[in-house]
Amino acid sequence: EVQLVESGGGLVQPGRSLRLSCAASGFTFDDYAMHWVRQAPGKGLEWVSGISWNSGSIGYADSVKGRFTISRDNAKNSLYLQMNSLRAEDTALYYCAKDSSSWDWYFDLWGRGTLVTVSS
Amino acid sequence: EIVLTQSPGTLSLSPGERATLSCRASESVGSVYLAWYQQKPGQAPRLLIYGASSRAIGIPDRFRGSGSGTDFTLTISSLQPEDVATYYCQQYNSYPITFGQGTRLEIK
User: Fold this and answer.
1) d(CA B87, CA B71)
2) Which of A35, A39, A107 is most worth mutating to test chain B (most B CB atoms within 10 A of its CB)?
3) Which residues of B touch A (CB under 8 A)?
């Protein structure tokens, strides 16, 4: 079955760190770019970060640049998001999303998301 | 960054009617770098349309995308109860990727 499964979310205090993971299955992971997209409670979608198939190209939203780091392990069919210096405004459901190709920037497969809550 | 403005914010129509959703960009996104997603309550988004007018795999032909430049439209002909959702447009012409704020579709 083609799917993405996120994990690693939870409740964390402001200023602390959290690492999200996304396990991919059912497709050739290293053929595709991958992304993280988040959705604050009751709000719309916000692209967070993307990484090309070979990690050669990486992009971040300005809101997370310098605090978040995206990475991937093609041998493990996994995508990661290291989130440091977390803020209350980072509270959201974080989706892992598959690019339609090696670097097209639209998303044809989404996971169900993992919830990150930043609060003291 | 390119700002996408969707209208209306909420649309309430009856089954069988046609829905017209608008997405306007603050600058041109070209003729093909626009996607539409459907997000049903409690679910992840699903790709409906890419390249402004190409339907994704498995999407019924009652969903139609059109437009170019700064003005794009998603048309849903003959609304079905299962079309209740929030619909988002997304541009991928320029960095960073941006989404519209969404149009919520209600069925009377």
Assistant:
1) 16
2) A107
3) 35, 37, 39, 43-47, 50, 56-57, 88, 90, 92, 95-102
Nearest to A115, CA basis, from A97, A93, A83, A87: A93
Phi, psi of B83 (to 5 degrees): -85, 0
| Continuous segment of H or E residues that includes residue B97 | none
Model confidence at A11, pLDDT cuts 50, 70, 90, reads very high
Cβ pair A42, B104 in contact under 8 A: no
Cβ distance B96 to B1 under 8 Å? yes
User: Is B4 a residue whose pLDDT tops 90?
Assistant: yes
Q: Are B92 and A104 in contact (CB under 8 A)?
A: yes
Rounded Cα distance between A72 and B13, Å, is 44
Per residue in B57-101, pLDDT tens? 999 999 999 999 999 999 999 999 999 999 999 999 998 999 999
Taking the CA of residue B57 as centre, how many other CA atoms within 13 Å lie in the half-sphere pointing to its CB?
4
